[in-house]
Write a structure and sequence with these properties.
By secondary structure, the chain is of the alpha+beta class. The chain contains 9 helices and 16 strands. The radius of gyration is 20 Å and the shape is globular.
């Protein structure tokens, strides 16, 4: 069975680590390219009713007996899982669609199992570090498998997954083929993933019996170093992968890469990394995170096409809130209020004036956050001052859009 005839179409995820970043933070970024008209909401999950079983998008699994992390998620409104997000332990995760040659039995992605997006959310809820989140995802993958339609209205859209997982110390790339997987640890420099397998011979963790199973499947002859990508890949968007790597190399060359540089990469149209609202697979949501032991800041658009959207900051505080205007209603269209306004007044109207106003506000937010962090470190500011940071930013955005 061969699924690789589908055109690779999905996302790009990036991470830049010291010594290439300003102030030695870790900077993560992801564009979530999804089917047209699919609404992506940004929601905060701080506490939910817990039973012995947990209903994910398609299947029910064992709930964790341990305390769950608070998580902020950018997610397709119809599913339980998330395309990307962060938890209150400084962990961020994004996933990518990949296509592999392992499509029978456990590798049959048509079967309803855990979606890659479910695994993103589970890793964030249960993982207190990047490596712990990796272990959560891989143990659940081996137990339950992955699969099921990844679009609400297109049963032919299914795939295996890769993940980029980061915290303020390191990052991991996790790539899968059915229940088989390999992971690569990244401790410095930069890394990006698009829609193809990229892990070759540097494998720092892997599924049990991986090499023997690869030989048994006839995808490796057992000679020389095992290459995960060569063994299992059945194609990917190599052009976008290379373009992303080129942008990371250029923007990090001065070793002062910052949040604005990640915004620029996610807004880069010529490379195909940023997809407009009229694309068949537009960029429906974007996230950038700066990860630091001092204070991690997570920036979300909650609207399509980051080149015409406003990245709004979020910081975990003891009593943090988010706006109800980025949470989808339960109706069929699932359009939250901010999405409706953005679609009508910014995207369809091609209103450059609003986009410029929002960009000015965004730049002001960056400066204010940098100032706050400095004062917070010197105990001049209290973290509780940021309880409604993102909520206020959303309300400000709504006011700008409706009054322009």
């Amino acid at each position: 069975m061969e699924f690789a005839t589908q055109t690779p179409r999905s996302c790009d995820t990036f991470v830049v680590l010291p010594p290439f970043t300003n102030k030695n933070v870790v900077i993560f970024g992801k564009n979530s390219d999804r089917p047209q008209d699919e609404v992506q909401e940004v929601v905060l999950s701080t506490d939910r009713t817990r039973n012995s079983k947990l209903k994910c998008t398609y299947i029910t699994i064992d709930e964790s007996p341990n305390p769950l992390n608070r998580v902020i998620l950018s997610k397709p409104a119809w599913m339980w899982g998330a395309e990307m997000g962060a938890n209150d332990k400084n962990v961020v995760i994004g996933n990518e669609a990949v296509w592999t040659n392992n499509n029978e039995g456990d590798g049959d992605a048509r079967q309803k199992r855990l979606l890659g997006m479910d695994l993103v959310r589970l890793g964030l809820e249960r993982g207190n570090s990047a490596e712990e989140a990796l272990d959560v995802i891989t143990s659940l993958l081996e137990k339950y498998g992955q699969g099921g339609p990844c679009s609400e209205y297109d049963d032919s859209h299914f795939y295996h997954n890769s993940f980029l997982i980061a915290d303020c110390k390191e990052a991991w790339v996790l790539e899968t083929s059915g229940k088989l997987w390999a992971a690569e640890k990244i401790t410095s420099g930069y890394r990006n993933i698009s829609n193809g397998l990229t892990i070759k011979t540097k494998i720092d963790k892997h599924s049990e019996g991986l090499f023997e199973k690869a030989k048994g499947m006839g995808v490796w002859d057992g000679k020389g170093q095992f290459d995960f990508s060569n063994a299992f890949s059945s194609g990917g968007d190599e052009q976008r992968q290379m373009e992303g790597e080129r942008l990371l190399r250029e923007y990090s060359a001065s070793k002062s890469f910052d949040v604005k540089d990640m915004f620029k990469i996610l807004r880069h149209k010529e490379s195909g990394i940023c997809r407009a609202c009229d694309d068949t697979f537009p960029t429906q949501g974007s996230q950038v995170s700066t990860l630091s032991a001092d204070m991690s800041v997570h920036w979300f658009t909650a609207t399509p096409d980051p080149s015409i959207s406003y990245f709004k900051p979020f910081v975990f505080t003891p009593n943090v809130q988010v706006s109800s205007h980025t949470e989808s209603p339960k109706d069929l269209e699932r359009e939250h209020y901010l999405y409706k306004l953005h679609t009508e007044h910014v995207a369809r109207a091609h209103n450059e004036k609003i986009s410029e106003l929002l960009r000015d506000v965004e730049n002001g937010c960056i400066a204010e956050i940098e100032d706050f962090i400095q004062k917070y470190k010197s105990k001049e500011k209290n973290i509780n001052d940021l309880d409604d940071l993102m909520k206020k930013c959303v309300e400000n955005e709504i006011q700008i859009i409706t009054s322009s």
